[in-house]
Write a structure and sequence with these properties.
It is built from 6 helices and 14 strands. By secondary structure, the chain is α+β, with helices and mostly antiparallel strands. Strands 8, 9, 10, 11, 12, 13 and 14 form a 7-stranded antiparallel sheet that branches. α1 (about 45-65) runs parallel beside α6 (about 220-235). The chain binds thymidine-5'-phosphate. Thymidine-5'-phosphate binds near residues 100, 101, 199 and 200.
Length: about 240
């Protein structure tokens, strides 16, 4: 697959055109940001880990019936994906209280919910990704009601599959953010990435944080945490 011109550079990835109009190449960077880009840094080796981990999990999800944008890993940092137009919603599932949930509702981190929660943010950096509900998303024409229902269903399936899989590795899937896209024919597929940048992952036994919160909160041991998740997930592949 020939890599052509760069189409877009985001905070963590670059996206390139290819000779096939329906396919793109994503290139994962080591750059890390938090708080809508206010905090900037580098996590050495993150691009490789996020690329491989995301591809591994997307293939697992495909096997469980969740369609994704994944096509083919072509290098440590680069993957061919199906071209989508991103639905401008950040879809967040939570199994355990943490982060903005704990802050907003004044509860400690670590409360295990009886059932998962779902919330949406409007993916818009200028507005700071404001929280919205399905009615707001429809009013803003970000997605149709049918699309939102499908996205919800897919997101809860992703939660079930990944929660079980991570538990087998001694990791609790606390919460995560997903993004979905539309193929040219309108089919909704899981897109973007699933990585320690976009999930909270805690060691089951020690509750040690194995994700980007170590960077957000200046806890140190960021690279070690990413490497630990990678090791448990894929051995030394
Ligand atoms: P939050 O508790 O800060 O709302 O984050 C919930 C989950 O979403 C957490 O796993 C981190 C992830 N997330 C992103 O992937 N991107 C973002 O911009 C934010 C704010 C959170």
């Amino acid at each position: 697959m020939e890599k052509l011109q760069q189409l877009y550079e985001g905070k963590a990835k670059k996206v390139y055109a290819t000779s096939d109009e329906n396919l793109l190449i994503v290139d994962y960077k080591d750059d890390a940001t938090a708080f809508n880009g206010l905090k900037k840094g580098t996590i050495a080796g993150k691009g490789v880990i996020n690329n491989k981990m995301s591809n591994f999990l997307m293939q697992l999800l495909e096997k469980k019936g969740v369609p994704t944008h994944f096509c083919e890993e072509i290098s440590d940092r680069e993957t061919v994906v199906k071209k989508v137009s991103i639905v401008p919603l950040e879809v967040i599932i939570r199994n355990v209280s943490a982060g903005s949930f704990s802050k907003k509702y004044g509860v400690e981190e670590g409360i295990v919910f009886d059932e998962p929660t779902i919330e949406f943010s409007y993916k818009n950096d200028e507005l700071g990704d404001p929280l919205l509900n399905a009615y707001h998303a429809i009013a803003l024409k970000l997605a149709t009601r049918d699309e939102i229902e499908l996205i919800k269903k897919m997101a809860f399936t992703v939660d079930q599959v990944l929660t079980e899989y991570f538990l087998g590795l001694g990791i609790r899937l606390v919460d995560f953010k997903l993004e979905f896209g539309r193929l040219a024919d309108g089919t909704i597929v899981l897109a973007d990435e699933i990585s320690p940048d976009t999930c909270r992952l805690w060691d089951v036994k020690t509750n040690e944080k194995l994700d980007k919160d170590r960077f957000r909160r200046d806890m140190g041991g960021v690279e070690d945490a990413y490497n630990e998740v990678m090791k448990r997930l894929m051995g030394n592949k």
